[in-house]
Amino acid sequence: MAVMFTMLGLFFAGIILILYITQKRSHSFDDYAVAGRSFGPWYVAMCYVNSWWPGTVFISFAGLSVASGVFGFYGLAYSTLGLSFMYFVATRAWRWGKQYNLVTQPDLMRLRYSSKAVGVVTSLIGAIAILPWTILGMQALATVFHIASNGSWALPVCLGAGLAVILIRQIWTVQMGMRGLVYTDMYQGIFAYVIAAIVCVFLLVSSSSPANWGDLSHISADLLKVPGDGGQYGPWYLFCQIFTGVVGALCWPMSFVRIYTANNVRSVKQSTNRAIVISGVFYALLTLVMLAAAHIPAVAKNPQAGWTTLLNQWGGVWLLGLGLVMIFAGSIGHIDGSIQAAGTQIANDIIGNKVHLNDATKTKVSKICMVIFVLVSAVLAYFTNGMSRLQLLAQLSYQGIVQIAVPLFFGIFFKFGNKYGALSGMISGFAVAAVLTVIYPDDIAALGSLTSGVVGMMVNLVLYVVVSLATRNRMSKQEIDHVDELFEVASARRSALPAAESSQVESEVMATEDAVVQ
What we know:
- The chain is an all-alpha fold.
- The protein is built from 21 helices and no strands.
- Helix 10 (237-249) packs across helix 16 and helix 14 runs antiparallel to helix 15 (359-384).
- The longest helix has 49 residues, at 306-354.
- The radius of gyration is 23 Å and the shape is globular.
């Protein structure tokens, strides 16, 4: 107990030391929200990975591999494909962000469709979808403290300890904004993904390991099946999980904030390539280890504790302590990033849409929103603890976040589509997904195991196309010229407008929208 808490304490002290050394007061909301767009590819890459894989990857996703076998590789498929597509999305997103001083994903949507309402709806969907991941992160922290205390701490105490750690960490997050997150993501990522990958390699190649490479040849035939290959799921289930994972991965607010922290387009491209390697190698090795460990009775009995059980059996308290540090590192990094993204969006795109806020007030409101968001997450983490399949919380969040995909992708790559189509598609798609998720939390058997998010996206796409076509004559010349300008900036065929001029263009378009609404 003392060894594990000491290791956790030393690691957390390292985080605080880094924050203290790199502390720098933000002089604008842009500096606070996206760190002044000043970081290189390695920092941005590790930020990507830290926003991709939370600490619960060692619990819920590792447990999925033990219980469901090779189905666990779906996470590898959607993460690598998602990051690959991010390579193309990030370039345009960064150029627009730099040119028009964007700090959030809803900022981009509002700019593209010349609509404050589109920005608000995007922000609401993003904040709601982030919440399940924050809950999972809080539960992962509670698990860390439960194991470190040798099971002597009750759940409320463990959740309280996790909340205390996050709140202490938030002292610097709310002061430094995104800059503090970027610096500590590198430190946390080394432990959570790089050192974890090295441990996995040793587990697979060591002859004394209870889960080495040779055990993979003896895994049960049931673990070699994927959903749809017999059993309760239909043929569309695996496709839906990978598809929503790939599409949803590009819609996360945390990812867009990371894009905007890069110092140039070259860094954006290089960071996505490096993130693919880090994420893919780490998750592939973790999944292989958990498949090899599936034969261990203690692991099979409690799959979600499989990672810590395996490390304890092989290396004792010291390796178990290191394993807890990995979960701790992934959890605190992901929670901080999620809270920062949610707080920034709520302040900038929801409250800031209704009330004019200067930079100082907007930063203060963002800090308040962050604290409220983490407190709500802690309460919900308590009531959802003990779910038999924790990864369902992650899957449910994807059903909502993918509803941003239709107007986002069409808006970034095609001039087709307007605010009417974007609003009707997102609202209807999210409503359909929400209702179906309540009725069918996992899959819809009658539709071949399609998931609620995919059905919602179908409705979303149809309405986006139909409504945009029906209302295309309602777009003013200013709006059309605005879209043309955006695509010239995105393709780098047009030199950047002076800041004052670009701001004036956007203001004129917004004024036109307000006049139409009135």
